[in-house]
């Protein structure tokens, strides 16, 4: 069977887990690896028995790979992806695709020009519960969405922040919880509920010794007038995450691993004016939910789907162009948090670039860093 030859760029942490997946998936072969840290590049190359590089240009120019997985820190995703597209390679970028919407625009433009496959690692899209939630919303079972809500605690220790010079700095990462932990949730939140048209946010550093935000919240307004609220933090240790989408005809609730669907007949606007009783109330029903079975999920599912899109034109589960939505949301949150003013979407590219330049100038080198390159144990394969 024909296999897509993949080069993985950035193999210290998450990229290392991707290498193992690439070796196991039927449609992919690990062709080579690259890391700017020579010790990491050599160790991974030898361990996985593939050629290794310390310069991503050299990997892309080598002709060894048809596609790359970009798993460096986020600022570099656009630069590497754009170079790969210019050389005719397909790209699977780690999340977020970029730190700024202007960079995300450049990536999308380069992908379109090259006509190569562009995907983003939003693996939570493959969870059966999320696939089902999307189907329910797309089938109109909750009607038009009138309110959304998302609360996501992603606890992190100070040791986590001290494990890399780039982590939690404006220069190294371009944000805190919003740019690092929040993108998966924001991807799902905007996939299911759409992008708001206005964000009024507050951001702050509450607990950790870092220069970027570890807590953020916002009031949201959508193009149809719907409202929403959003909260994310690395300061809260107790989950689960919680999302709600309330529509005219029903409500969808995602709470940890649980998906609930409630419907009402007739719809709220119809009943409101048709009911004659002063205390009349709608009949609300909890609907049984049958989750899809036997479908692949996780990082491996995204890599396999990326390869199948290249080989057979299979539709992407997580298209790179859709990766721009979470960047739009994050940029709106940070811009509003820093100006104290509501921000309209699409975010002004010029204003955001200007803010980011100022924030980068204010960035200070970290005093206590003990570099640890380690994949989150949740993502290590048995
Ligand atoms: N999808 C997920 O579930 C998930 C989970 C964790 C991290 N991530 C994402 O993966 C990316 C990397 O995060 P991490 O935690 O693995 O970071 P990390 O610091 O552990 O690893 C990044 C690696 O990239 C290397 N690198 C830096 N500059 C490079 C360059 N110019 N060329 C080649 N290699 C270079 C570093 O030396 C390092 O080994 C981030 O964007 C993060 O958001 C995604």
What does this structure look like?
By secondary structure, this protein is α/β, with parallel strands linked by helices. The protein folds into 2 domains: 4-123 and 297-318, Rossmann fold; 125-294 and 326-362, Dihydrodipicolinate Reductase, domain 2. Helix content is 34%, strand content 22%. Strands 14-13-12-11-7-10-9-8-15 form a 9-stranded mixed β-sheet. The protein has a 6-stranded parallel β-sheet with strand order 3-2-1-4-5-6, sandwiched between helices. β12 (250-255) and β13 (258-265) form a beta hairpin. α5 packs antiparallel against α11. The longest helix has 17 residues, at 323-339. The protein is globular, with a radius of gyration of 22 Å. The two termini are 26 Å apart. The relative contact order is 0.17. The mean pLDDT is 96. Nicotinamide-adenine-dinucleotide binds at residues 9-10, 12-15, 34-37, 40, 56, 71-74, 76, 94-95, 121, 123, 164, 180, 373, 376.
Number of helices: 12
The percent range for strand residues is 15-25%
**SSE class:** alpha/beta
Assigned CATH architecture of the largest domain: 2-Layer Sandwich
Task: Please estimate the helix content.
Answer: 25-40%
Order of helices and strands: EHEHEHEHEHEHEHHEEEEEEHEHHEH
Shape: globular
Rg, Å, rounded: 22 Å
- Here the CATH topology of the largest domain equals Dihydrodipicolinate Reductase, domain 2
CATH class term of the largest domain: Alpha Beta
- Major sheet details: 9 strands, mixed
Within CATH, the superfamily of the largest domain carries the name: Dihydrodipicolinate Reductase, domain 2
Q: Going across the major beta sheet, what is the strand order?
A: 14-13-12-11-7-10-9-8-15
Distance between the termini: 26 Å
The bound ligands are:
nicotinamide-adenine-dinucleotide
Number of strands: 15
State mean pLDDT (0 to 100 scale). Answer: 96
Low-pLDDT segments: none
Total tally of structural domains: 2
